[in-house]
Amino acid sequence: MTATLDAAVEPARLSDEDLSLMLTIRAFEDKLLELFGRGLLNGTTHTCLGQEYVPVALEPLLDPADHVFSNHRGHGHYLARFRDPEGLLAEIMGREGAVCGGVGGSQHIRRDRYLSTGVQGESLPVAAGVALHLKRAEPGRLACVYIGDGTFGEGAVYEALNIASLWRLPLLVVVEHNGIAQSTPTEAHLAGTIAGRAAAFGVGHLLVEGADVPRIRRALAPVVARARAGEPQIAEFRTHRLGPHSKGDDTRPPRPARDDWLARYAAAHPDQVERLERAARAAVEAVAADVAARPPTRWERP
Question: What is the mean pLDDT of the chain?
């Protein structure tokens, strides 16, 4: 079954809590790019600029005992679940207080029932295996896995969907369909549709257009409930990745302001955005200053 949540004409007013979290994720990602530009970070990072609303809309529908599997573009997923910019930035910078001791960096995070990795397609079969365990040992819990449209080039995705449907696993697949796989447009790498793939396996499918968090949450609630009951589901978000794939590898032309949920929302609710954005950026600045002053983890020491 496929359903569609169309984009709202004008963004509904968000709660301060939801908007503050979305703006904190935006400020965090902007800060990472700044720190890289100043040579203060090593390795790589993949920001979720423009996609912040996806995990914020979903997270209240998840239980702390649910398993969440993220990916290389997972800072927003982590922050929506744990509200912990200090631990995440310390991890990325290799400083004391790092959530994984400084060995995971930007992409590989494990905390409680949350796991992110940088290998495309890997997390879906792992999530299916965990969903099988939950079905047997913890009925009512689910495995939620975030993937992108580019992940549908991996054979493991189809094997996992097949097993999930056959065995009626409590699995929720959240697709952040941002129209580009690293530097390859979707139309150049994906034949057919994601809805068509869901239908082929007998998996439920919801297409989400727009970034109206309250409407998205209402539409997702029955989808999440069906997944918990052993009817695997795909929630496909048509979203936009505003930043580069990594730090500077963006071959696309500049994006119009209408592609950014924040620009659209700020035009409708300028006072709320100005107030909460100022607070979010100040908080992230304070976190960055604090973390930068900490000693490195033992893994980062010469």
Answer: 92
